[in-house]
Each structure stands twice: as C-alpha cells, then as structure tokens.
Amino acid sequence: MSAVNPWVVCFHPRPGARLRLVCFPHSGGAPAAYRAWSSQLPAWLELQAVRYPGRIGAPGQAPLTHLRDLAHGAAGALTDDDPRPMAFWGHSLGAIVAYEAALLLQDRGGAGPRHLFAAAAGAPHLPLDRPAIHGLDDAGFLAEVAAYGGTPDAVMEHPELLEILLPVLRADFEAYETYRPGGALPAGCPVTVLGGEDDALVSRERLAAWAVQGGGNTPVRLYPGGHFFPQAHADDVLALVVRTLADA
Fold it and tell me: Which residues are catalytic?
C-alpha cells in the first residue's frame, strides 16, 4: 500500500513485475477480496486493489456518491510514482469505475490500461434498466441488496456490522444509479467481459453491449452462478486473466 495515497493497496509488492493488475471492487467491496489472487499471480504480474473512501483501513473518509469522483481518485493514485503499465479488472460497480478511470487517464494524456476485464456489469453506455434503490428506507434498501446475493447473512443479521456497511453500500448504489456514461475507451484497450449464467441482474445482452467499447471484438465468458460468480470460480477466472495478459 502506498504510504502517501490511501487509494491503492498492494498485498504482495513485486517491484520487478512488468505489469500491474488493478482490481476495482463491487459495491460495498474492499481490497481484501483480492488478497488471495495477489498471492497466486506469476512473478511478472503485481496485483493492486483500489480502496474506495469509507472502507476499512481508510478512517475518517466519507464514502463518495458520484462515480466519477471514485474514478478521479483511483486514476490519480494509479499514476503516482509508478510508470509500469496496467490492466484493469472490475466487478459490477468496479467495472464502471475502471472504465471511467481509463477514460480519465486517456484524457490526461497518460497511458491507459492495456486490457479491461469487466465482470457482472452491463456496458456503461446503457441506461439503468431497473428502479433505483439508493433512496429507499433502510429496511427496503437492505432487502434489495440482499437479493444480489453477495452480502453474507451473518452481516445482514448483525446490527453493528450493518451500521458500518449501510452508508458505504448506499453511497455505492447512488454512485452507480446516478451515473451517466462518458466516451469510448481508447482503441488500444481491448475488453474481456465475464458474466454469470444465472445472473438475474445483468442480462447477456447487456454484457454483449460492451462490444461498443471494445472495438467489436469483445469476448464474453460465462460462468455458472449469479452476480457473484467470481467468488465461486476464483481459480478459473484468475487463470483466464493471466492467460489473457501473458502477451499484453
């Protein structure tokens, strides 16, 4: 983790790695979700995980409610004192933050990611296809979040944990639900899309629509499971990422 900027966590620094895999978590997510991945990567690849404000390890920071603010913070941190090229992985909300961060890096004249992996997220140019939930009362909001399947029952049933998590989740959903897309990704940034075969939240059509961003040659990989399929198929997903980046 950078001692100067709290946005980026690196569990296993590899100064000799030629490429960085930057992981953007889902709504309510934190870098710890990628700790196991970090230890399994080959020597030429270093994992860095983005930590949005308000998460564990970022005391005194309020969660942000605008997606472009998340992207601005991440993009700025990723260009601090590390010239090595990057690839981006984003899950759900994280895929859209990664996309916006890539646009920002391009607009600033810097080097954007060499590859973007977008998991469990519809293409960013598509309008929201479900009612927004971030403005619901606590009970209604948590009931909707529970339907996503990514929050353990032990958390949902623990008042003290919910008190910590609720503002973060609500802010993340507001950021996603009020987002309006930017431009197209740089031509040199191919996109690989991953989805769950049983994901009721993101249709295959919305996954396939990433082709607009990936120049038309945008593979879609489907895995058994729902919105949080990367957790159940972590080894297979990571193997795909490594194979794809081997020549990046």
Answer: 92
